[in-house]
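Look over this entry.
=====
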Amino acid sequence: MTDPQSKTLAVSSPKHRRRDDATLDLVTVYDPTGAASDAYRMLRTNLFYALIDSPPKIIVLTSVSFGEGKSTTAANLGVTLAQADKNVLILDCDLRRPRLHSMFDVSNTNGLVDILSGGSRVEEVWREPIPGLKLICAGPSLPNPAELLSSRRLAEFLAEMRPRFDYVLVDAPPVGVSDSVVLAANGDGVLLVLDSQRTRKGPMRQALRSLQGVGANVLGTVMNSFEVSRRKTTPYSNLH
């Protein structure tokens, strides 16, 4: 497994934001010239060039715990990829705490749950919030989402999507939830999203061991809420 500590992207958080409006987390849309948007474009560039020999197509984004910004990263990375004329699909596989529908301001009435249960076709469910970007929300809540995400149908569904898109971004639950490692095992690579103010080394190491245990290919880490200094808030990246 690749050492993710050698591949870390830092993302600064925009200041003076209203946290009650989830759409404001879509900085690549509402603040495209800001430092955070530049960082997401840098992440996109690294996906294009740093992994040119074996480019991942199905990328799972997860975190150590809830609230560390994995959904925000998935949404903004998806937008930047679509802006680069890539055909992108984002899947909200966090069936316990879905958030992408709020960020893109769309309904969560139907979604991945309906597709995997056989009740709906993909084309009936997905939305296109911006050109080139398809979004499949989580859909109705389930008492035990792990069973659905562990089913053979999920692997079949991802296989069906692979030839249809340049990138499939999977917003997975945190690693501590069993759903996450199942999703990681079905992806080409994993981005582990961290919060510079909250994530601790012990839980992070445990998360990496869990991912390694299912043979996941950890592409690197993305660090949120990062400020380089009091004078400079431009994010930096040391991905190779």
Remarks:
- Residues 154 and 164 are 16 Å apart (CA to CA).
- Confidence is low (pLDDT under 50) at residues 1-6, 12-20, 229-240.
